[in-house]
Design a protein that fits this description.
457 residues; mainly alpha; Ammonium transporter fold; two-stranded antiparallel ribbon; two-stranded antiparallel sheet; 15 helices; 4 strands; globular
Length: 457
């Protein structure tokens, strides 16, 4: 069938809409850069005998989450706006699952009275699907080299569905917790705190990797292949996230009035500069901690801790406030990191960054910006979804934080109970020692490390 230009809905394909389409597509590019950065960090820190397996499990876990999100995840998140309009969650799922009417409709054939800005919403599926995959990558950092692949892949699918439902409640502007006053601009709750909650359950069940926390009879030490890879990975994440920030904004007339996804008053320049300042503050403090302790880990944890702590408030902070949060966050990450080390807890990323800096950031946001109006939806003047009817409060920040971590804990408890009785959860210690690259893929490292030579002595 040929295209009849006279029958199209021109309002759906204006130049202004194209600009927004490109803007949100750039957020996808930024999010994919984050994926690459995370994989580089993993490649620099995983044990050489597990390097390929660790990287490929993260990659496959990413795509399992990505595909699952397309199947059902977006319909769950978008349900908050359907409910706002008097429809139901099931209406949203019917429209936005992989075979749904809105997922498969062409914008120029769709009446804007039915769904305006359809192209942008469709692009947003891709954007959020990347973050569904990122959640699985982050979780893998906590279970890497010791969780069985079938158990991890099943967990990826379940985690995507649960985190999607959690995003409905905590990220947007009219979900139940957000509308009640919980504020989370960048999705810290469902992207970072949720997998950290799962790690609280999985980490003690899986135990420490041989040679990681103490010398092992067959592995004298846990040696990472190339810590130097972590710095480029860190900078790739830094480079990608500004584009993601733009995709966490809504734009309304006149022309391009920026309102945050939480409907807080903000601007593009302020949000981007807040991002810059938390990284700078975290890097400065991380540098001081690293050189005073002689521990290289804090050169990496510092800027990441600043970012995670500030992310929930990029839209509402002033740059000087963001800088203070960034400066303080690495001290919290340091305290958590040292706490876990002293107790032999083999989890060095999610706990200090998310349970430490992430929770700290949620609390600081409730203190610094209490009373800031947000929530509801632009253009609605009265009722439960009136524009900016809700205010940031410390109580709601604590409630939302507990809900996100608690959801992760409950999800992992249920999963671990089932997995331990079916496919199994933990890789046998002998296989961890020999290395999963050889066990699963018949791959041997090109270099025998000093630690690995202990088992051959």
């Amino acid at each position: 069938m040929s295209l009849d230009v006279s029958t199209i809905f021109a309002q759906q394909v204006t130049l202004n809409s194209l600009v927004q389409n490109i803007l949100y597509a750039s957020g996808i590019v930024g999010a994919i850069l984050v994926v690459v950065g995370l994989l580089l960090i993993d490649a620099g820190t995983a044990r050489r005998r597990n390097l390929f397996n660790s990287t490929i499990e993260k990659t496959l876990g990413f795509f399992l989450g990505f595909a699952t999100y397309y199947i059902i995840g977006f319909g769950l998140w978008a349900g908050q706006y359907y409910i706002m309009e008097g429809a139901t969650m099931m209406d949203s799922i019917n429209d936005w699952w992989l075979g749904g009417a809105m997922t498969n409709a062409m914008a120029h054939h769709t009446d804007p009275g039915t769904f305006p800005g359809l192209n942008t919403f469709q692009i947003f599926i891709f954007f959020l699907a990347v973050f569904a995959g990122i959640i699985n990558i982050l979780l893998h950092f906590a279970v890497s080299e010791r969780m069985k692949a079938p158990a991890y892949f099943i967990t990826c699918i379940v985690a995507t569905v649960v985190s999607s439902a959690l995003s409905w409640a905590t990220w947007g502007s009219v979900g139940p917790l957000t509308n009640a006053g919980f504020h989370d601009f960048f999705g810290v709750g469902f992207v970072y705190l949720f997998p950290a909650g799962m790690a609280l359950v999985f980490t003690p069940k899986l135990g420490a990797r041989p040679g990681m926390m103490a010398p092992h009879p067959r592995i004298s030490a846990y040696l990472a292949p190339s810590i130097g890879l972590c710095a480029p990975g860190l900078l790739l994440i830094f480079a990608g996230l500004p584009m993601v920030i733009l995709s966490c904004l809504f734009f309304f007339d006149p022309e391009a009035l920026a309102v945050s996804v939480t409907m807080a008053d903000t601007s593009v320049g302020i949000a981007i500069n807040n991002y810059a300042m938390v990284w700078a503050g975290g890097a400065i403090t991380g540098l001081l901690i690293a050189y005073s302790t002689g521990k290289y880990a804090y050169t990496l944890l510092g800027p990441l801790a600043g970012y995670v702590a500030g992310a929930s408030g990029f839209d509402v902070y002033l740059p000087w406030q963001a800088f203070i949060v960034g400066l303080a966050a690495p001290f919290v990450a340091y305290a958590v990191y040292e706490f876990t080390l002293k107790r032999g807890i083999d989890e060095h990323k999610l706990f200090p960054l998310f349970l430490g800096a992430g929770v700290f950031g949620m609390i600081m946001l409730g203190i610094f910006k209490a009373g800031t109006p947000r929530g509801g939806y632009f253009g609605i003047e009265e009722g439960a979804y009136a524009f900016q009817h809700g205010e940031i409060s410390l109580v709601m920040q604590l409630a939302g934080t507990a809900a996100c971590i608690g959801t992760g804990v409950v999800t992992a408890l249920i999963l671990s109970f089932i997995l331990e009785r079916t496919v199994g959860l933990r890789v046998h210690e002998d296989d961890q020692i020999e290395g999963l690259d050889g066990k699963i893929w018949d791959l041997e490292p090109d270099v025998l490390t000093h630690a690995d030579s202990a088992q051959n002595a």
